[in-house]
Amino acid sequence: MQGLLATAGENLVSPAILFFALGVVAGLVRSELAVPKELTAGLSLYLLLAIGFRGGAELAREGVSLAFLAAALAGLVLGLIVLPGVAFAALRKLGRVDPVNAGAIAAHYGSISVVTFATASTFLARAGVPHEGFMTAIMALMEAPGVLGGILLARMSGHQKPAEPGRIGAALRETLLGTAPTLLLGSLAIGALTGGKGMELMAPFLVDPFQGVLSVFLLDMGLTAGRRLGDFARMGRFLIFFGIAMPVLAGILGVLVARVVSLSVGGATLFAVLAASASYIAAPAAVRLALPQARPDLAITLSLGITFPFNILLGIPLYFALAHRIIQG
Amino acid sequence: MQEALKRVEIVLEALALPAALEIITKAGATGYTVIPQAWGRGARGERTDLGFSEVMRNALIIVIAPAGVAERITAGMSPLLADYAGILTVANVESCVGLVPGDTL
């Protein structure tokens, strides 16, 4: 317990996390601090490119192994079926959320958050804990299936208007060919193709500035989350509970699955972060296209306003401690 | 006499923009203007650009078109506006300087 508190405390004093906290506070007190939206859009492109490229280079260094394939398969099953299924069931049965909104929210929780993953990687690097290089590729693989899983659950629950086949197609297009997945997967491929040489060339652009860019991006995320805190009151207690309980449950599940596929402590921490994180870039757009009757503000406030801050501030050290105990203990 | 001109103004969720422009073109409009970033407050609460996602962003479309085209746009847009955030208004154009809809260079 003391070790957990120490890691959580250490996590809290990293610059990127403190900038996030600054954003939340500034948003709460309605400070005039604002990050231009065009800059945020640009920074998110940089983050996707940097994360994808570095993941690709690491994949090239390690090669495709059996361990990678096992983790990839586990990630796909978790993302497509288990996570959206658990989220959907909890929302329907415990929260009495209507099927369309339950499916929409489940899609967000089935998918992953690239920035949470990047923050967790930074956390591991600071703690000096190594992880499998293929984890970025696993992350890229887990972005789309969860979105699809949630959308299908909403559709199968039969409370939808007569089927409009174009809608699923548009959503599928968005999850595979939207800005985020295209750049992430494309950079991963370029990183894998150019390997160590490419990484050497790109390092001054991709490695050193990364923490600074992540800090500015997290500052803006904090501002958005802080300004949205007022929306919680209208969401009801169950959804707030869900926004914290779901990532904890998914994180535990993630560590257990990671143990089955023999990931290291670092790899298991990242796998748990992937399971626990909820999407707020790729999923909202795809869900909006496939399930226009769902309220977009509900899912985005949950994933961005509750789950994201929870994971960034407390979730990551918690999953690390769990991974440590279950994998090494 | 030339058909009366209408000004169709549509505030719309940015994500539905491609679908809307297709409806407008199919309705026979020869042009339109899009202001891609708009924010505001309405029945769905505050809608503002998040920067990293277009889901909460609005766009503004302005179309100057003959009354018949404006009617077709209104009819075509109503299913879209049932699902997505937005509002469509049609107003009379009293005068129009520049290339009038239908003109070609």
Tell me about this structure.
The complex is a heterodimer of chains A (329) and B (105). Chain A has helices at residues 2-12, 15-28, 37-62, 66-94, 99-110, 114-127, 135-156, 165-177, 179-206, 210-228, 237-260, 265-276, 282-290, 296-328. By secondary structure, chain A is mainly α. The two termini of chain A are 14 Å apart. The mean pLDDT of chain A is 91. Chain B has 105 residues and is of the alpha+beta class. The longest helix of chain B has 17 residues, at 67-83. The two termini of chain B are 21 Å apart. The model of chain B has no long low-confidence stretch (mean pLDDT 90). At the A-B interface, helix 3, helix 13 and helix 14 of A face loops of B.
Q: Features of this protein?
A:
heterodimer, A: 329 residues, mainly alpha, 14 helices, 81% helix, globular, B: 105 residues, alpha+beta, four-stranded antiparallel sheet, two-stranded antiparallel sheet, 2 helices, 6 strands, 35% strand, elongated
Strand tally of chain A, please? 0
Helix proportion range of chain B: 25-40%
Structural class of chain A: mainly alpha
Strand content of chain B: 35-45%
| Overall body shape of chain A | globular
The largest chain-to-chain contact, stated as pair and per-chain residue counts, equals:
A-B, 22 and 15 residues
Number of helices of chain A: 14
**Mind describing the biggest β-sheet of chain A?**
none
Radius of gyration of chain A: 19 Å
Which runs of chain A of at least 5 residues are low in confidence (pLDDT < 50)? none
What sequence of helices (H) and strands (E) makes up the elements of chain A? HHHHHHHHHHHHHH
- Rounded mean pLDDT of chain A is 91
Biggest sheet strand line-up of chain B: 2-5-1-6
Can you summarize the main beta sheet of chain B? Answer: 4 strands, antiparallel
The end-to-end span of chain B amounts to 21 Å
